[in-house]
Amino acid sequence: MTNNKGFSRGWAAAFVMTLLPVAASAERGASGHLDILYWQAPTILNPYLSSGPKDIEPASLVLEPLARYDETGAMVPWLAAEMPTRANGGISEDLTTITWTLRPDLYWSDGTKVTADDVVFTAKYCMTQEGGCQQAGKFSDVTAVEALDALTVRLTFAAPKPFPYGPLVGVETPILQKAQFLPCLGGAAQSCTTQNTAPIGTGPYRVTEFRAGDVVAFAANPHYRDPDKPGFATVTIKGGGDAISAARAVLETGEADYAWNLQVDPSVLDAMADGGMGQIIRSFGTPVERLMINRTDPSPTLGARRSTREGGAHPFLTDPAVLKAMSLAIDRAAVAALGYGAAGKPTCDILPAPAIYASSANDDCLTQDLEQARQILENAGWVDADGDGVREKNGIRLSVLFQTSINPVRQDTQALLKSWWADIGIETELRQIDPSVFFGGDPASPDTFQKFYADIQMFTNFFPGTDPEAYLNNWTCKGIPEPANSWLGFNIPRYCNPTYDALAAELAKTSALEDRAAIARQMNDMLMQAGALIPLVHRGDVSAISNTLLGVKMNSWDSELWNIADWTRAR
């Protein structure tokens, strides 16, 4: 079972609340058509240019990595014949190389053979700086990627790499077909429309139609390596609408088979499930609903320098007193209970799990204390001199623009936080943005979460698998989105601290698990105590499935669709 800090089974464990039976294997496509609802509509099918699970998970039907994480958090070979280890010679004794061997039965969906050259090219694609690769942190310290023969690839690191499974492992870094993506290296990456919306892959499905922000249609890959899979001949992933309507389509009307990411009032979900047409499935991994704090100035008067380090520091959100007060004003238990029920726990950390990485240094935020929050602001010179209910200092008002995606649970949370912050003298303007825009990758849109044209924003993020090294790399200085990299990168708060970067480098060369965990906790604590992020809820993943759907294994460590080849329909 779980506690407030994580999972008793340690670093490769997941708490899976529902595990559905697996149907017996059948003829490829025998189960007909599968309808899936990702109400946050996909806008791209290239994980290297993607901003979130709404794009990455649908892409996983087509694009696959060398290895991935199963529903328990264990790493398993996927396109690789086996997991490289020191014992089998796949990892060198000095920890500076890892050698992968591909399965010999791999073909692209166009019928051509998968080779080591595709793997080498994929690494080059992401490591080419001008391409704005979202997953560049996973290739940290990689100095060379070489094809030793048609099926064997060796990655070399600049220093000993105790955990060398970052590159090309997990749903975020799949293998691309060199022949298709060769024209898309570097600065051309963003403009490769066909490649980014209809990639040729090795997965159980191939794309037959893509309408950004609306629908993706798939058909079974005729060259998939298992002749009896996938179970469904065709799949549609439909976007749009909202979480409530998606849940209703599975649990009440039976119009769909699977509905993803159901941020819906728990009592409403339970009532829907009582209808008997479907069931709710949940699992816990690493996702945390958090507030991102803009450490740069988002004023429109700055023009192209808006929300960039070049435009200067935020006028008050770099003041530790303001950030501490805002955090103490929040009743996280109320947020978790209202929005998530059994699928949420209050947290003060960005690394709440696995248990070995969980810190206890920030737990004071678990208790709401409005009086202390007011006193902290008062002591720091933030006072309501004119009696309008809003504190100011040196002519600067504590007034924030707080944005998030359109979602009933998030809007309820916004309303709660606005009320609590008003109680301590902070004015809040709320903004809600369509999820397909907010989490989209359109560099021209002013409303993407990476441009961050606001003071505070809220969403959930997580790291696939069980080792947080690549995830923590997101908050190094080089991970900051900015115009020069087409606003790509996951350092959304624009946090930049040389000490943090040095810890990231130390983590990369540390081998002992306990030592790695100690560094990770220290990095977590630096982010929390700097106020770069304000965690709210350790979220379980919640989806709904039809009672006729078999083979689903809910997975919080990879894609929820990770084993879709095994899904079938009950007869």
Question: What can you see in these coordinates?
Answer:
This protein is 22% helix and 20% strand. It is an alpha+beta fold. The strands form 6 sheets. Strands 3, 4, 10, 11, 12, 13, 14, 15, 18, 19, 20 and 21 form a 12-stranded mixed β-sheet that branches. The protein has 14 helices and 23 strands. Residues 1-25 have low confidence and may be disordered. β16 (392-393) and β17 form a beta hairpin. The protein has a domain at 285-540: Dipeptide-binding Protein, Domain 3 (Dipeptide-binding Protein, domain 3). The two termini are 34 Å apart. The longest helix has 18 residues, at 513-530. It has helices at 53-59, 116-127, 178-181, 193-197, 243-251, 266-273, 320-328, 332-339, 370-379, 408-423, 435-438, 469-472, 498-508, 513-530, and strands spanning 2-3, 6-7, 15-16, 33-37, 67-69, 75-77, 97-101, 142-149, 152-157, 205-211, 215-220, 234-238, 258-259, 278-293, 344-346, 392-393, 396-397, 399-405, 427-433, 456-461, 533-546, 549-550, 568-569. α7 runs antiparallel to α9 and α13 (498-508) runs antiparallel to α14. The protein is globular and about 75 Å long. It comes from Aliiroseovarius zhejiangensis. Residues 75-477 form the Solute-binding protein family domain. Belongs to the bacterial solute-binding protein 5 family. This is ABC transporter substrate-binding protein. InterPro entries: Peptide/Ni-bd, SBP_5, SBP_5_dom.
